[in-house]
Amino acid sequence: MAADGAVATAPISRFAAVPPPLKETFTKLEPMESQAYEKDWEPVFQSVRAPLSAFQTAAGSKPFEPQKLAIVRLKFDRTSASVICISGVGFGR
After folding, report:
1. Closest Cα partner for 63 from 8, 3, 15?
2. Distances, alpha carbon 19 to alpha carbons 13, 36, 92, in Å
3. CB under 8 Å to 64, separation ≥6 — which residues?
4. Contact yes or no for 21/81 (Cβ under 8 A)
5. Burial code of 20-44, b = ≥16 C-beta within 10 A, e = fewer?
6. Which of 21, 19, 7, 12 minimizes the C-alpha distance to 77?
7. What is the value of pTM for the model shown?
8. How many distinct helices (H) and strands (E) make up the chain?
9. Of 38, 69, 81, 83, which is least surrounded by CB within 10 A?
10. What is the pLDDT of residues 39-78, one digit of tens each?
11. Which pLDDT belongs to residue 55?
12. Radius of gyration (C-alpha) of the chain in whole angstroms
């Protein structure tokens, strides 16, 4: 969101494929596997670069000017796993 109220959005799928969770077997012994580990998956981290110029506003709304960026909101509404792991967010030129 820009300081003037303009809101721009872009789905991550435009910049990178979102991989499914990596299924893991941590031990060869099933009783130990189910007792020692809560989940059978590990997060898969990847870097995604999304240029601010790729973000678009809705038709008829204020144009988005990246130099007026004030707030960044991450909305995860397209994953069936309902889990997203983020290790960092940054901005650069």
Report:
1. 8
2. 10, 26, 25
3. 2, 6, 7, 8, 55, 56, 57
4. yes
5. eeeeeeeeeeeeeeeeeeeeeeeee
6. 12
7. 0.58
8. 1, 2
9. 38
10. 667 777 788 888 888 888 888 888 888 888 888 888 877 7
11. 86
12. 19
User: What are the contacts of 8-13 at 24+ separation with CB within 8 A?
Assistant: 8/52, 8/55, 8/56, 8/57, 8/64, 9/55, 9/56, 9/57, 9/75, 10/50, 10/54, 10/55, 10/56, 11/78, 12/48, 12/50, 12/78, 13/78
Q: Tokens representing 90?
A: 């940054």
Token duo for residue 19? 């991989």
Q: Which amino acid type is present at position 25?
A: T
Look up tokens 């709304």; give the residue: 61
